[in-house]
Write a structure and sequence with these properties.
By secondary structure, this protein is α+β, with helices and mostly antiparallel strands. It contains 6 helices and 9 strands. Helix content is 34%, strand content 21%. Strand 2 and strand 3 form a beta hairpin.
Length: 243
């Protein structure tokens, strides 16, 4: 598949974190999205050819043990964080669901017919899971966002029409893994926030949104590129360890 000059410019801009997109570049964005997904699939095949597991292995990080202690109420100040789940703290007031989970807890909830199962994977520094359509009708434009305690918003994933009983894989790269709690929920259609929600969320959370594109249409592509970056780094590390 050949890339147009516009598509190549988009790819460079996304990697640089400062995309400038023309209004008519949607076809190029979709093309790049599929190319990055293809690259990720080929990278997984390379891992298996090298005798490595399909997914990067978990690597213990400094301080991770202390983070896990926090899930059991042993960390100082956790009681104050959990008070926020009941609306008693101002921090994180933009989250729509109101439910917060500790860093390594699993999300499993159904909202308007879409069941989302999601958890943080420390090995790849990403959230992984699925969305299942539990209704008897197609859910249009299904997507997922994650909101972190550090103010960063992840996603949304690419809008996808989900048929009855169908399952959608969800992966969201974490650009700043220093967070204590997170919240999320699946969305579909246009009944959630209306036009301009993503931009309003950026203004609310200030600089915490990281380097993701201001153009909401580029964010699914940016997410795929971030996931690819992590998988390349993991492959290099594991091949070096194998020698």
């Amino acid at each position: 598949m050949r890339l147009s000059r516009c598509a190549l410019a988009l790819l460079v801009a996304c990697v640089a974190g400062t995309p400038a997109v023309a209004q008519d570049s949607g076809a190029d964005i979709d093309k790049l999205y599929e190319l990055v997904k293809q690259a990720r699939a080929e990278l997984k095949a390379l891992r298996m050819d090298a005798g490595l597991p399909a997914e990067p292995k978990k690597r213990e990080r400094r301080g991770e043990h202390d983070e896990r202690r926090g899930e059991h109420g042993e960390r100082r100040g956790e009681h104050d964080e959990r008070r926020g789940e009941h609306g008693e703290r101002r921090e994180g007031r933009g989250e729509e669901s109101g439910k917060r989970l500790a860093k390594h807890e699993k999300w499993d909830a159904t909202r308007k017919g879409a069941r989302l199962i999601l958890a943080y994977d420390a090995a790849t520094q990403s959230f992984k899971g699925t969305v299942v359509n539990t209704t008897s009708k197609t859910l249009p434009d299904v997507r997922v966002e994650v909101h972190l305690s550090n103010g960063v918003e992840l996603g949304p994933t690419k809008r996808t029409d989900l048929k009855p009983g169908a399952k959608l894989t969800v992966e969201l790269a974490v650009t700043n893994p220093k967070f204590k709690w997170w919240t999320t929920h699946p969305e579909h259609g246009r009944e959630e926030h209306g036009k301009g929600h993503e931009e309003e969320g950026d203004r609310e959370h200030g600089e915490g949104t990281g380097n993701r594109p201001k153009n909401a249409g580029l964010r699914p592509l940016y997410n795929q590129i971030e996931l690819l970056h992590r998988e390349i780094r993991a492959l290099r590390r594991e091949l070096a360890e194998k020698k």
